[in-house]
Design a protein that fits this description.
15% strand; 6 helices; Tyr_Pase_dom; Protein-Tyrosine Phosphatase, Chain A; MAP kinase tyrosine/serine/threonine phosphatase activity; five-stranded mixed beta sheet; protein phosphatase; 156 residues; Dual-sp_phosphatase_cat-dom; 5 strands; alpha/beta; MAP kinase tyrosine phosphatase activity
Length: 156
């Protein structure tokens, strides 16, 4: 399995090894990092970086953290994406936290529903959401929020 996979053009989903691989970061023009851990370091060359401080331990408090952060995460990833930058969203293994953040971002980018997007992500990076989506409640919360409150109010 690769350390990172491109889910949509210019947005990669990966693990801690991709995030620390200077050669890979340069080859793929990654200039923005979203680190979905509380403690993994950032590569020193990355100057545009965000931390999503969530543990993947299935504790309700951590699920609530992801839920609470989801609107801000979606906005920040989308803002960086719209400037044309290449982004890596990662956690330790690139399976759960970062995949949840990717889903939340893609809901905002595409307007598609979470189940469709989670399937797309799994096709691109098969280890995601295995054996289940640990942050499903957070994803479902944001999916409902986006489709009932945010999307209907976006000016066309």
């Amino acid at each position: 399995m690769q350390n990172a996979n491109e889910i949509v053009p210019r947005v990669w989903l990966g693990n801690r090894f991709a995030a620390m691989d200077e050669k890979w970061l340069k080859e793929n023009n990654v200039t923005v990092i979203f680190n979905c851990t509380k403690d993994l370091p950032f590569h020193p060359s990355m100057t545009t970086r965000y931390r999503v401080p969530v543990d993947d331990n299935l504790e309700p408090a951590e699920i609530n953290n992801m839920t609470r952060w989801s609107p801000e995460i979606a906005y920040k990833v989308l803002r960086e994406y719209k400037t044309g930058k290449t982004i890596l969203i990662h956690c330790a293994a690139g399976m759960q936290r970062s995949a949840a953040v990717m889903t939340i971002f893609l809901i905002t980018l595409t307007g598609e529903t979470a189940p469709v997007l989670m399937s797309h992500i799994r096709r691109k990076r098969p280890i995601t959401f295995v054996p289940q989506a640990n942050f499903r409640k957070s994803i479902e919360y944001y999916d409902a929020l986006y489709h009932t409150d945010i999307q209907p109010n976006i000016r066309k």
